[in-house]
What we know:
This protein has 232 residues and is an all-alpha fold. The chain has one domain. Helices cover 79% and strands 0% of the residues. Helix 1 (17-44) packs antiparallel against helix 2 (47-69) and helix 1 runs antiparallel to helix 4. It is elongated and about 65 Å long. The chain starts with 16 loop residues before the first helix and ends with a helix.
Amino acid sequence: MSDACCGHNQPFDGMDRRYQQILSIVIAINFSMFVIEMGGGYAANSRALEADALDFLGDSLTYGVSLWAIGKSLALRGKIAILKGVSLLAMGLYVFGKTVYEVFYLGVPRAELMGTIGALALAANVVSVMLLARYKDGDANVRSVWLCSRNDAIGNVIVILAAVLVWGTTSGWPDVIVAGIMASLFLHSAWLILMQARQEIAQDVGEKEGACLPEEHKPHENQTSDLEKERP
């Protein structure tokens, strides 16, 4: 039985052709930037760029899953959102671990290349954020796409700032610090996605168990009134 039978308002679930086309464009943008930024990260010796490149790859894969999940049940979409939250959590822990490693094996990135690629990545993410802005308040599946794109844009601004600081200080510490900040963003977004997905799965279970009961099993106003009259 569909959710509509219960008469509850549901958040936007992606069932819109225009949204699906926009999401396909965003997937292409993200995968292209993964290839560009990962190569640039190695060339520039920048951990922040590599972390951001991994984020682009993760977004490409999870957005593809989000596109596939559109139209599926609320519970299934919630479970897929949990998978995305867990992958984001793993990515954050990986970047955090690599950041700790860099503290002991610190190198100085090429600031000019780091800044140029960071600016290109920012432009790509600003386009993605603008395309997705009107859908930012959807269900866990849709909202996770918005959160990831927003975090990417924030991360790119920080990467550019780190490039300026690396150039000004001739030190690799700004790059390491930025990688740590990006790891914390991954972890925070993972938490938000997991909490909303858990709520939506619980909501779906609740609706199936009680909200759509046959009329004869639901209490009627007349029955309630009669019981109240019988009370002393």
